[in-house]
Design goal:
Blueprint lengths: L6 H9 L18 H19 L5 E7 L5 H13 L16 H10 L2 E10 L2 E2 L6 H9 L9 H19 E2 L2 E4 L2 E9 L1
Antiparallel strand pairs: 1-6, 2-6, 3-5, 4-5
Helix pairs in contact: 1-2, 3-6
Length: 187
């Protein structure tokens, strides 16, 4: 059996948490930040995948890993700081685990992680000069909650200025993606 895990799947699972209690880990800590919620969604997703597979079934996935979009996130936080907004005041919806973190989650849910690799995958962004601005609007919108359109434009401009020397070459922006590829077997 093959499963495709997407952002939509994780959201659906998290909204139907009452259906998962029989297979989820017991969580004893409170979920006080969006990062905690993103982590919790991963636990629910892994538990749901485990429940769906037969013993010996394989879970194969690729997703953002530790250090994913680090340059972009650093620029984003710096730009927010420049208008007086501290990193702790914004909701970061991203969870990019290390191999150790994720394989531990898999093992705690009854998987044997048989392969895991973390690798850089610099990815050119479409639309030339507008590439990073469009990426930020698409994937980092939650960082802008409560900001005026003028503040958002200002922040994006600061981000572009910060990143241009490293992520903009020959008319193309490149996202600094780092990916985890993993294969795990249900025990």
């Amino acid at each position: 059996m093959f499963l495709v895990v997407t952002k939509y799947f994780l959201i659906v699972v998290s909204r139907h948490i009452h259906h998962c209690w029989g297979v989820c880990l017991t969580i004893s800590t409170s979920l006080s930040t969006v990062g905690d919620v993103s982590f919790f969604r991963q636990i629910i997703a892994i538990a749901s995948i485990h429940q769906a597979l037969k013993p010996g079934g394989r879970f194969v996935a690729e997703f953002g890993g530790k250090g994913n979009v680090l340059a972009i996130a650093t620029a984003l936080y710096s730009a927010l700081e420049s208008i007086g907004i501290h990193q702790t005041q914004v909701e970061n919806p991203w969870y990019y685990p290390s191999i150790g973190e994720y394989t531990t989650l898999l093992e705690q849910q009854g998987f044997d992680a048989i392969y895991a690799i973390l690798f850089p995958r610099p990815t050119p962004l479409a639309e030339g000069e507008a590439g990073i601005a469009n990426w930020i609007k698409m994937f980092a919108g939650s960082f802008f909650a409560g900001l005026s359109p003028e503040q958002q434009i200002e922040i994006i401009s600061v981000i572009e200025e910060y990143l241009k020397p490293t992520l903009y070459q020959q008319g193309t922006w490149t996202a600094d993606y780092r990916r985890i590829r993993i294969v795990a077997v249900k025990l």
